Sequence to fold (226 residues):
Amino acid sequence: GENVEQHPSTLSVQEGDSAVIKCTYSDSASNYFPWYKQELGKRPQLIIDIRSNVGEKKDQRIAVTLNKTAKHFSLHITETQPEDSAVYFCAGSSRSGNTGKLIFGQGTTLQVKP
Amino acid sequence: DAGITQSPRHKVTETGTPVTLRCHQTENHRYMYWYRQDPGHGLRLIHYSYGVKDTDKGEVSDGYSVSRSKTEDFLLTLESATSSQTSVYFCAISGVGADTQYFGPGTRLTVL
Fold:
């Protein structure tokens, strides 16, 4: 089955710097890769996703890149702000018949220092 | 936020007691999921449903059962709660394509 590894587990950056979180997946059939942001005590919120037919997707300060050959994808946050501080989770899809499941990475705690 | 609610939001119970958590959605989505979240483990899938009365196990299903008698409700039951089931439980829903998932607010369960 699918396995998703996420690195680093913690990341500390200065406000205004960029942050990069990387994930690798094992199932070459995976075709959907979302990223979630979870603030303390809150639910995970989808911030961006990418499908296997594209290599990059951007949304303002957030971008995701996908390398299908190497089976890894990354989240890039530019011009980080204190409100970007949260736990970020990557996930990969795992299909069984017509049922979609997501396998999540272990999470990255991002701290943006003012 | 998608129309997902969970109840109760907090619960403290004792070892050996049965516990039922409820997830309710107003989006008419076909797919519903139960996850548990523990430090260092991320989000792990317990059970999921792909339609009324259609359910299947996830990666950490031991000690849990589920039921879905209506599209809008997905129940998670701990038949005999154990301290290892202390966790935060999230429900999620997904529509056509069963890819993008939206999460409920979570239930914090403490088993003493």
